[in-house]
Amino acid sequence: MTTTAKEPSASSWRRFFALELLDNRYPALHGLRVFAILTVIQFHVTWIFAGEQGIPLDLDFANASLLVFFGMDLFFILSGFLIGSILLHSLESQGKQQIRRFYLRRIFRTFPSYWITLTVLALAFAMTALQKKHLVYEFTYATNFLPLDRPQVIMFWGWSLALEEQFYLTVPLLFVVLHKLRSDRARILLLVALWLSALVVRLVIYYRHVPWNDYVLYGALYFRTYTRFDTLVAGILLALVHRHFKERLDAWLSEPLHRALLGIPALACLWLLVRPSMFGVDKVQLVHVFAWGTVTTLMYFALLLLLLHGDGFIHRLLSAGIFRRVATLGYGVYLVHIPLCDHVAVPLAKAMYARHYSLTFVWIASVAGLSLASLAVAYAMHLLIEKPSLRVREWLAA
Hints:
The chain is mostly helical. It has two domains: 37-68 and 328-398, no CATH class; 76-319, no CATH class.
């Protein structure tokens, strides 16, 4: 009797503590998500330490860290690929009901955690007058159209979440148009034209207001939906190409020469991203106009094609089960890593620096410790917020 009574309880606890894992149709992409998470964390640690807190990191080291800015674009193209894959399948097989289910799943997985995090931060810390004024915009996912300095917004890092949600408002219309086109060639041409149009917008803005201050150019081009949607469109284009040409791509990319034809341009793009002054210091701002969306998506598009149509060592490594679990918590990590950096990592780093620890060690320990602490908080949020929200979503979808 005692054993029988305990078994349901143990099973219930296991279900409670288990992760609601992400879809596993493309397991190698989970490893890429983890890579993107780590690049974003290390970027923000360097930016907050050296740029805001005056922790004297080595200048060359700090500059090298800040050059790895393109983890966010990897999130965008993966997000576009995911929504593209689901909606293409839905339109072709199950119709609008599945699209509705997708949006319910997205809303109930992402909105509650974001709103609760924003609310907790608003209540826990004194707000400036501008933060109070702008709070309604943050709650309605308009952060990326606000000035993103700390005295004006609470969750300045919410700009990327706002950009995605704004883009997704237009996605149903885009897929209706794609569905009405008669051929895959026409669909690809439309998506390529749409992808290029973001570069055109950036170039128009750039040349209309030359000369630029670097910081002002960053604010004008990097965060706005109308200048950065190309990364998401590239993900949708990748989903279309992968879905309709998978067999041909598998055959073509089975040849080492053909894989090199994709790999070498991707590496060239990477070299340009980390060496923006290669055409001269006076051209760096113009390089940024191309890099912030166009070059990053060319690089990731090629690399993702190689990954989706390969089964080598890197593919198997990125497909490891641990990455799926970490990636499931990635959204929560992104939400909480900045507050944890401000209120935990920075004080600890300053204490270690005061005790004459090597700044290289301080930075590494801070990135590693912040990553683990963010994962722990994200896990708690997953259990207490995300999973109950998904249960509500299942009830509504039924």
